[in-house]
Amino acid sequence: MVESILQGLAAISAPVPLGFLVFGVVLGVWGGALPGVGGPAQLAVLLPFAMLMEPINAIAFLIGVTTVGNTGNTFTSVLVAVPGGSGAQATVLDGYPMAQKGEAKRALSAAFMVSMLGGLIGASLLFASLPIMKPLVRSFGSPELFLFTIWGLSMIGTMSAGAPMKGLTAAILGVILSTVGQDVKSGTMRFDYNTPYLWEGISVVLISLSIFAVPEMIALAARKGRVAEVSELGESGIIEGMKDAFRHKWLVFRSACIGTWVGILPGLGSDVADWFAYAHAKQTEKNTENFGKGDVRGVIAPESSNNAKEGGALITTLAFGIPGSTSMALLMIAFVAVGLNPGPEMLGSQIHYVYAIIFALAFSQILASAICWGMIKPAAYVCFFPFYVLVPIIVALCFLSAFSAHFSISDIIALLALSVLGYFMKIGGWPRAPIVLGFVLGPKVELYLWLSIARYDMEWIWRPGVMALFTVIAITLLYPVWKAWRLAHVTTDEPGRG
Amino acid sequence: MHFKATDLFTVFIILVLGVAVYTASHWELRASIIVLSLGSMGVLMASAQLVLDCLDSNRDGEPKKLDMELPTIKDTDPNKTFWGTMEIWGWLAGLFLAIHVIGLRAALPVFVLVYAKFYGASWRLTLILTAMITAFILGVYDNIMHVYWPDSVLGDLLGWED
Questions:
Q1: Domain co-membership, B50 together with B110
Q2: Any domain includes B31
Q3: Summary mean pLDDT of chain A
Q4: B90 and B23 part of one domain
Q5: Burial of A76: CB neighbours in 10 Å, binned 0-12, 13-18, 19+
Q6: Which residues of A160-178 are buried (b: 16+ CB within 10 A; e: fewer)?
Q7: 3-state secondary structure of A467
Q8: What is the C-alpha to C-alpha distance for residues A61 and A317, in angstroms, rounded to an integer?
Q9: Distance from the CA of A70 to the CA of which of A231, A376, A462, B3 falls in 20 to 30 A?
């Protein structure tokens, strides 16, 4: 085993693979920072080149490109409320308010530090899990996955504490929007209104752009100001952000574990990991009244989780040959093309490549964070750009990102229509995060429910894993109620004490 | 009862969910169960929210702060903000029209140029911004991704090909 580990480390540390790794990381960060460019689209473009490489070079290059997008996409989420990718949606909720308060540097610095730490924790868990992964993943069937997604939806109660009914209704609207298109179980066309564009459903890119980015740009253009309300960015912001990561080290660790676990479970991606971690932070941390108003913990939780997810996603891809996401599927295609065989064989005769992948993952996280730190200072000044610089550029990027969903003019129409919804939700006092979470989790809830019924009839309810998750959900739902009751109880008792 | 203009949005949500439930009632059960069950709950919850909002006698005061919502910068001049909002929606409608007429690839740089110049950016800054977005479109979307751009009215008239 030690020999294989050293073999993997030596292979990835050689100058040529290391050069490809650096090149891949630069492309990955760049793709992540530009909305609509990174992720599977970028990987698909680079795949033909990678397929011609030596296996170790392909590993270095592709791991570099694939696993750092969630570090690069923090820039737009924090600075202009445009989620650079699906893994950076929850970051907007506290990252953008921090930018408005002149704390963009601190938010970005904390995000990059925890991205690195989260990524390293994910890589370590990938390393540690190799011997025990098989029985663990096999114990998780569709009923447990169904309960896991329900757990995600139950977090909406926590996420919209100011208006739980509006939050739940928004989540339901998100779930219903996610059902648009052909139902794979029955072949029924849902809400297509005889429009071919709707057969494939609505892209999550369109939802996140129209619910968060466009309404914020409209607000900025309407008040004709700047993102930041203050005139100073704070010189100590970068150091403060790094300290924040260590101040909340247990939150970083817990969020990274959540991210890794979500990555392991097939079908759940970074778009879920960041929301789970955010809701977990809001539920378990003390003094959460500033969440959503620029609390650094609201940046730390999703950012450590979405990077750790990469380690988890690689566990199932490498150990079982089951890609949990589009990016992992593309990665697997490239691995197979260069002669690697993800699955049991890879854990046997090709184990040194697995260790090379783990080291490549760890190096990529460190390198990506270093690159991003270098870009914080110039990038943070985006907050001071006048609206007539930001609005046209961001609107143009939003239109291009939306167009990238299906490369159709209908994408633009859908973006504008959904932006009207997002805008009225903003001015009508409706929480917007639950609609995105509902949209992301809706198809998974439906799929796993039907798989559970088809496979186990109603017997699935009595599986031990399901019962355990039912308990977790009950605690998730009841904990905020108990917390509120306890707070009220303490408050009413206090005068008597004095 | 205190019915406010913002309640119209709640009514809109109730209607959307109601139409969704009605539409789903014509599908087979496997395809409709999620929409029927959740949609009905949504109609009930949104209706309850509307009633609660209308019965709330304190709602004319400071609006409640929502968790999980991006904070809005305090509106110092509502009149200016209203017309600013109308303006930007007008710009978006204009951009959409321009995309139809001259195509997405040309409309976006034109939008950047006209918007920045209209609101007082210097010619130098305006041209830099326009060049940036043009380079991004040509470099990434044209040369790397080889995107097929949608047809435009002018392109069809003049026989341009993408």
A1: no
A2: yes
A3: 81
A4: no
A5: buried
A6: bbbbbbbbbbbbbbbbbbb
A7: helix
A8: 17
A9: A231
Nearest to A111 by CA among A122, A119, A123, A102: A119
- Please indicate, yes or no, whether residues B89 and B145 belong to a single structural domain of this protein: yes
The CA distance from A119 to B55, in Å, is 50
Residue A226 gets which letter from DSSP?
-
- Report pTM: 0.74
- Give domain status of residue B131, yes or no: yes
Residues A429, B63: C-beta atoms closer than 8 Å: yes
User: Rounded CA gap, A493 and A491, in Å?
Assistant: 5
> Which amino acid, B92?
L
Task: From A426, A404, A413, A204, select the one nearest B95 (Cα to Cα).
Answer: A413
Inside any domain, residue B150: yes
Give me the residues of B, 44-73, that contact A with CB < 8 A.
Answer: 45-46, 48-49, 52, 63-73
Query: Which residues of chain B are within 8 Å of residue A387 when distances are taken between CB atoms?
Result: 119
Same domain, B98 and B153: yes
Lookup result for tokens 């564009």: A197
B36 in A contact zone (CB under 8 Å): no
Complex ipTM:
0.88
- Is residue B72 within 8 Å of residue A217, measured between CB atoms? no
Q: What is the distance in angstroms between the Cα of A212 and the nearest Cα belonging to chain B?
A: 9
Are residue B49 and residue B86 in the same domain, yes or no? no
Establish if B147 belongs to a structural domain.
yes
Would you give the end-to-end CA distance of chain B in angstroms?
58
- In chain B, the number of structural domains is 2
* Domain interval for residue B142: 82-158
pLDDT in tens, B37-86: 989 999 998 999 888 888 876 665 544 544 455 555 555 677 778 888 99
**Residue B90 CB partners (closer than 8 Å, separation 6+):** none
